[in-house]
Every structure is written in structure tokens, then in C-alpha cells.
Amino acid sequence: MKTVYWVIFLSVALTVYSLVNLYIFYHGWQALPSGSVWRSIYWIVFLLLAISYIVGRFLERLWASPVVNLFTWIGSFWMAAMIYFLLILFLLDLLRLFNHFLSFSPVWLRTHYVQVKLYAFFGVVAAVVLVIIVGFINACYPKVTTLDLKIHKRVNGLQDLNIVAASDIHLGTLVGARHIDKLAAMVNALNPDIVLFAGDMLDEDMRPERCKNICSGLSLIQPKYGIFAVPGNHEYYVGLERARQYLKEHNVTLLTDSAINIEDKFWLIGRHDMEKRRFTGEKRLELAELCNGIDKNLPIILLDHQPLNLTESATNKVDLQISGHTHHGQLWPFNYLTRRFYEVSHGYKLKDTTHIYVSAGYGTWGPPIRTNARPEIVHIRLHFE
Fold first, then answer.
1. pLDDT digit string, tens, across residues 7-48
2. Residue 214: which domain range?
3. In contact, 132 and 77? CB cutoff 8 Å
4. Do residues 103 and 159 share a domain?
5. pTM for the predicted model, two decimal places
6. Residue 173 belongs to a domain with what CATH number?
7. Looking at 92, 116, 138, which one is the last position of a domain?
8. Pair (134, 151) in one structural domain
9. Distance (Å, rounded) from C-alpha 81 to C-alpha 332?
């Protein structure tokens, strides 16, 4: 089942990728003067950009090296550029279509059409490059989002709980040791009692045998109650048990459909990701099953990677749910899609008595840029009665 899924997924993805590249290439080729040196440069550069990601991902399985990583980086930036080239060219095509029927273009444009096309080519390229640069800078500077939340429960010997959470780090070729070191410094500055990771700590290209030192910075984080995580969909792409072992070696406990009592002060529940069924053929446990038998007089904190069916958390009297997965779209305008699909795409919501926070994520997936939503670490100060 898993093999069939990947064959179908890759077939569809490569088809769409090829068609989009052909669309962009054709418009660029048409904009450049026939027989000019620009066309010779254009097709060479375009071919390099279009194949870089595929070449990088293929070769990294055979030969881990800076050269291969460079292909992956170039290809990742190109995937983001493709989105914005596609949007701009589609809008220009609509404009041309309307002009064909309404004929509203000025005379000077028609008489200097060759020059205008060339200027438009360089203008569009410059605009997309600027967006990519700004998005990359934005992705490099995570922020801290702070929430003060009241839980109407009494906890013996504990009035406040200082939680630091993050999601969607996507450790791998593009998000490496430098990002983890920055994460550790930001987390320690908040002096957490407990650190929680809401899935997708690892990316699909994360191979423990060649990524041994990426997570060394996590050893600098030593909260009172420990570091816990749940699997996201990408932990299944890595291989769940391999991901569990790797995280365990770096002092992170992976919770998979389990509830643990933390020093008789609060409960922490960690769920399998929804991808479990696709990869194992088995459904994850219902939240009601996980809550069965736990003392609901104590605060209940839930980690669930994908923010789906939030009513289930409210029904089972969860006090705080932390999720991720959405990246809040990561690249504009995909945030409009995530807002349509998820009840909470990013941010805080109180549902009955359940506090819910969906993080925009700390890292990036695919292109190492963010044109929508800054990366974040979430600082939650829980106050008890």
C-alpha cells in the first residue's frame, strides 16, 4: 500500500511540476528576441533550475556531499520562484485575453511590443527574486509568541507551568544544526519547565547516519519535566521507529497514543499522526480511549500534530491542545487554503473550556522561505487556581 501511494504521488507531482515548468519556460522564451544571446543563456539557466531539486534529491541517497546539497538548495528556491512566476504569468495571460476582446492597450505598447516584452521579462524576474530574498530573510528570524492562559484547576505545589513549544522544524538538508542551536538559545532564554514539540521535527531526507550532529544543540535544553514530542506525517516518511530512536538519543521522548502523568501535577497526552493509517493500515486510538482512566481533576495537555476535529478535544475536557502542521500556508497565498481547510490555521482559539494553539512552525518545508507567517516558538504560561 505504501509503495502504491508513493508511485501515484510521485507520478502526479512530476507531471504537475513538468507542466508548470513548461508553461513558465514558454512565456520566458516568447518574451526574449528571436536569435538573441538572451535565449541561449535562458534555456541553459532554466534547465539547471528546473532539474536541480530532482537531481539533488536523487543523488543524496547515493552520495552525501556539499555539491549535492547545493543542487537541493537551488531547486528548493526554484520551487518557490515557480509559484510566483506562475501567478504573475497567469495574471498577464488573463490581461492579454481581456485585451484581445476589449482592445484597451495603448498604441505605444503595440508599436514597441518587442521591447516591452523584454522589459517585462526582466521586471518579472526582478520581482520574483525580490520576493524570494525577503521570504528567505523572514524564515531566518523566528519570533516568540507568548500566551498567558488560565486553567480552572488546582494543582498541589504548582501555581504556574512555563511551557515552551515548537512544531514543524523539518530537520534535514535545508534546516540544520544552526537552526537547532538558535532554537536551543531561544528556548533556554524562556526558562521552560517543559518543552513540547508538536510533530514534524524531522524531514523526509533526515538520515540519522549522516545527520549525527544536527541535534546536538538539544542537549543544552534541560527543562525540569523534560522534552516531549509527537510524530507528524514526516516522522512516518523517515520511518517512525528510526525517528523515535534518533530523538531518544537526543533526550526527546516521542509519545505515540500514550498519556503520562507528570509528577502527579498534570497529564500529557501525545497522539499518533493521522498518517499512521496510511503507513500501517491501523487507525490511531480515539482521544476518548486515551483519556479513559486519567484523573481529569488535573490539567490535561494534548499534543496532536494536525489540528483536525477540535471538537473532540473540547468534548474530552482537554485543557490545552498544541498543534502545528499547517505552516499557516508558509507561502502566500496558500494561507487562504489552510484557513478554509482548518478550523484554526494559525493562532489561538478557546473552544468551550479547551485552549487551542496552532503554531505556524519553526522551520520550513520545501522552499526555505516564508512569505506568509514568521517562524515561531510558542511560550505558554499556564496559571492554575
1. 787 888 889 999 999 999 999 999 998 888 989 999 999 999
2. 143-384
3. yes
4. no
5. 0.90
6. 3.60.21.10
7. 138
8. no
9. 12
